[in-house]
Amino acid sequence: MIVNMTYTVMNAAPWNVLVPIYLFLLSISAGTIMITGGSRLLGGQIDQLWQRRAGYLSLVTLALAAFILLLDLHRPLRFWHLFNPANFNVNSPMAWGAWLLLFFGLALIFSLRPFTFHLSGSAGAETAATGEGATHRSTLFIMFILSLLLAVYPGFELGVLQGKALWQSEILPAYFLTTTFLAGLAVTMLIGPGEGINVRARGLMLGGIIASLVWIISRTLLLAAGGEAGILALRTWWSNPFFYLGEILLGLILPMGLLLAAKKPDIARLKFAAILVLIGVFCMRYALLTAGNLAVLP
């Protein structure tokens, strides 16, 4: 006896705008530490005020990202199950992401102790003034590694989902890493001392923009050669205005034009380019998530 069973599969988008906002805030938090921590590890000098602003901004955006993630859960009060070692799934990027958020937040809080609690005595004042208590090399290294992991893990989390041609690519983690770097650089340009970062920030931002365009071109070519599913994903992606207007035009092309047109360091031009880059980083995440959900063969 042969029994034929018919299933109806609905390609509904399971995520709303909260997820792109969560990923955007996470990129600011991780990217800010990536820039400031990486600069210190390479021997760069960072102003104490800039360092404090970057640390607190990273912590606040991380807390907001975690709160938005809880709002997106169907049963937010059961979030603690993510941190139950008995429930840890080594094959789940979401499980790794939850613990990364926790460790990164704890490392941030630890690094900000001298700025949060006023140390007494001349030794304590000197420690807080130089920032050594908050930026000890081992703590910096740990935070830098955690920021890199936080930057790339959304690419792995999306990549393991079946039936989503737009997301299933080895390029995606590098794409997230590059745009997180751009987000962190843009934020530090906005909150940091203008005169000291102009020349280096301009070159780094141009490099990040070019790298992002390379990932977009590479992903486009791979999707074009990916059969029917790839063509559908490519068409859905490139028809999304958040992608071609928000990410490419506002977030990459216009900032690159502003930076290349500057004949000399221009603080106002750099800060405007940084704002455009942040808009592009958010649009990248929104377009990638919405297009990836829609580009599914029936």
Automatic annotation (TrEMBL):
Pfam families the record matches: NrfD (PF03916)
Parts of the chain that traverse the membrane: 20-42, 54-74, 94-112, 140-160, 172-191, 203-222, 242-261, 273-296
Coiled coil: none
Bilayer topology term: Multi-pass membrane protein
Protein localization: Cell membrane
Keywords assigned: Cell membrane, Membrane, Transmembrane, Transmembrane helix
GO cellular component, one term: plasma membrane
Plastid keyword on record: no
Family affiliation: Belongs to the NrfD family.
Protein's recorded name: Polysulfide reductase, NrfD
